[in-house]
Amino acid sequence: MWKTIWQVLLCLCAFGNTCCVKAAHPPEAAKWRTNKPLYDNGLKECEAFRQSLLRPTGATRSTHAELVGKAIERFPGMCRTPLRGRAHLDDFHVTADAFQLQLRGRTSLDSKQAFNRFTGRWYGLWGQMRVDQHWWPVDQYDPSAEVGRDLPRILASQYAWVGDGFGWNYIVQPRHTPTRHVILGMVYHLDTSNAKNIRLRRPHVGYWAGPGKLIWVTAREIFFEQATSPREDDEAVYTITGFNYEIEEAQLRSKGDAFQAVYTRKKDVRPPWIKFPVDLQVGQGKGRDH
After folding, report:
1. pLDDT (tens digit, 9 = 90+) per residue, 193-225?
2. Does the model's pTM come out above 0.70?
3. Least CB-packed of 96, 129, 134, 145 within 10 Å?
4. How many folded domains does the chain comprise?
5. Which domain holds residue 275?
6. Would you say 227 and 212 are in contact if contact means Cβ atoms under 8 Å apart?
């Protein structure tokens, strides 16, 4: 099975080097796509991160997933005033319980609805850095693909070049709920002085909030991402709104300012990156936000 899949990907990558990946991206953009060890390792690290979020900790036996879910539920309402006149988060109707259910693999998901709107090229700013992203078409596997006996089976994946590195989104079947699905993601950031070296690995878990709307969680960041219309629309925008956080003693607290980046389909249209203050705190059995 995997030999066939990776033969297909190698062919697609060869096509991409001539037709998809032009001067806007370095050669590494397509090269890493067929690196099966990193693809497999990404899934392994993401699944380990998902399990860590669901594992009860401390005297209260609460989980980090509970705290993250509460923060995700509250954050959109805190953005209405600072994001007035810009892309807002009012269309993200997420509850803490719904986040945990999806993270546990209790819902069914469609890879096309989850990933397709992000496919293609995007141009924007991350801070002061100009960033060109390229999201390849979604690869779907029927039957689902197996990476390891103890890991979820893969239903679909999407490769991306994200400006300073690369990664994959995965839709997987957890072993204990094979008819339900979970979204995972892995990003490898490259050394700026030597693009052959990986300087940072960032496993993610994802939440599907509707067509073109994903929420991504890492060990210290939460991102609300939205692509507003299909890939062929030149007026489409892709927004990333998020904040950094830390968890200590069953309390989640935001760290520093929140931020928003807006990407477009046009290389010469890069809306400004903004930061805005946010003070969000949630705890086991209670919540507080400012």
Report:
1. 887 889 999 999 999 999 999 999 999 999 999
2. yes
3. 129
4. 1
5. 2-289
6. yes
